[in-house]
Description:
Blueprint: H1 2-6, H2 20-24, H3 26-38, E1 42-47, E2 51-56, H4 58-72, H5 74-90, E3 97-99, H6 100-103, E4 110-111, E5 114-115, H7 118-130, E6 134-137, E7 148-151, H8 153-160, H9 165-171, E8 179-183, E9 186-190, H10 203-216, H11 224-241, H12 248-265, H13 269-282
Antiparallel strand pairs: 1-2, 3-7, 4-5, 6-7, 8-9
Helix pairs in contact: 5-7, 10-11, 10-13, 11-12, 12-13
Amino acid sequence: MYERSARGQGDLVGPEDFPAEWRRARFRLRADLNDLVRKGQLERHFVFRRGNLYRLSGAGELEAQRLLHLRRDPEGRQQHARDGLVSAASRAAYSPTIGLEAFLGMPQSQVYGESLTLDEVGVAAAFLVERGLATLHEGDAPHSLKALLTLTGVGIQCAESSLSVKDFLMQNGHLPTYYTNVQGGNAQIGPGNTQNNHFGFDASQFAAFAQQVLADAPRVDIADELRSQLVRDASRLQEESTGPAPEPGRVRRAMDGVLESLVRHSTDGVAQLLHETGRGLIS
Length: 283
């Protein structure tokens, strides 16, 4: 609906405007439309001879923008690929093994209705191998996506933990820290680099934002596990920004973690306002 409106095709839609496969599941479609109306993301309008038509509300447009952001966000797609590979391999019938090419035909490879690319799956597999969560057997295959990915003991623990790969690695101290070094206008990213751009940095603003997130976290409408991640990210930001000599690069990375949690895990109005406030601090 959001993309249709952006293309100038009108903002009111009816059943005939939805894909045929959606219309075949008309009871599910009707339930979903009613649910979005209840959440305030859709407005329902009765039009003579056409029946009920729908348009996005302001909240619905924000939600559509959030979903499009998640679909296009490279890091988000990588996290989805890593989580999907671990999940698919852990559910294999005889051993925790999945073919990379076969994975592309599974539901776990879909990011909000859009399939991951071959390259994205290959990069995600390499990440899991590098972190000790999986091994990769390429054999005599002419293409790397013919390879078989097998979870290690640690990878199986990750799958059984119900945590995302990112959270599992952070919880177990396996996730490396990266620094950004700005020299001569070029950003260099890698372990051991430092952030040297101090322009406009005021640690107290980030500390106050972290405190605001911690205070509002109980009111954000998300699952308890995701709320815990948001609290952990905000606590880290508070810690980094209230030390005796806050380092801008570390504060910025902590801030990015809070914003990522807010934009990925909630459609709640409180989270949206917090995200806008946070973005204002770094823009």
